[in-house]
Amino acid sequence: MAVLNGYRTLVFMDTQAPRHTLLFVDDEPDILQALQRAFRKRYRILLANSGSAAITLLNQQPVDLIISDQRMPGASGVDVLKHALNVQPEAVRILLTGYADVESLAQCVNEAQIYKYITKPWQPEMVLLTVYRALENLDVQRQLQRTIALLQQQKSALDHYSLVAITDNSGCIEYVNDKLCGTSGYSSDELLGGSCRIIRSDRHDAVFYQTLRQTIEAGRVWRGEISVRRKGGDLCWLDATVVPLLDAEAQRPGHYVSIAQEIFPSAG
């Protein structure tokens, strides 16, 4: 344990490094020691014995969760958590208070956007559960952000290579990418909200479209070569895949994703 400019850093070297870093802020040594004992086996612990020391620490080290006392000399808990919101907005912020100070609580909720407040004297089991749930929620949010970022990268790669459209189960166009617009000659404004029949050509008979429709309505992927008509009237051929997206409640396709590549410039 080292003392660094008014705060202490406790790093516990186990066979597996702790996943999260917790910052506890209080001017009462007994409170800091109690929090330290409760969490040191599972987490990396940072201790600050004043609000100003906590603010300095937040400028230097990333943390996942902060529990701060409200009434301290100098910077208050509201000041600490507001600063945390500005410099580390992802960190979970929890206020620890021994006073029924409604004004301070309201200020902390509104200005520091705290996750929760805990009143003194606190029960160790309640604090442990609060922290566990807060970090569990933080992990879910982080995983969601990673998944969204990955999906955005995949979408970008797909958009560079393929023509992509999404329709509802009535054939109404809900999404088109730029590559589809460039190939078809239609703008997104002309396509969105309209029927996919706008690009249908006369090169296929009714049986072809009926088979396609029956396949995707049954929840199966359809793949084949299909002719479409550009805005200018000429035809082009696509190697297309249509993937049904199931509606979880209705247990049937609610939307369809079409992904295609032009296989030769034009025919007709």
Secondary-structure topology with pairs:
Elements: E1 2-4, E2 7-10, E3 21-25, H1 29-39, E4 44-48, H2 51-58, E5 65-69, H3 77-87, E6 92-97, H4 102-111, E7 116-119, H5 124-161, E8 163-168, E9 173-176, H6 178-184, H7 188-191, H8 206-217, E10 222-229, E11 235-247, E12 252-264
Walk me through this protein's architecture.
Helix 2 (51-58) packs parallel to helix 3 (77-87) and helix 3 (77-87) runs parallel beside helix 4 (102-111). With 268 residues, the protein is of the alpha/beta class. The chain is elongated, with a radius of gyration of 29 Å. 38% of the residues lie in helices and 28% in strands. The protein has eight helices and twelve strands. It folds into two domains: 2-152, Rossmann fold, CATH 3.40.50.2300; 162-264, PAS domain (Beta-Lactamase, 2-Layer Sandwich), CATH 3.30.450. Strand 1 (2-4) and strand 2 form a beta hairpin. The strands form two sheets. It has a seven-stranded mixed sheet with strand order 1-2-4-3-5-6-7, with helices on both faces. A five-stranded antiparallel sheet has the order 9-8-12-11-10, with helices on both faces.
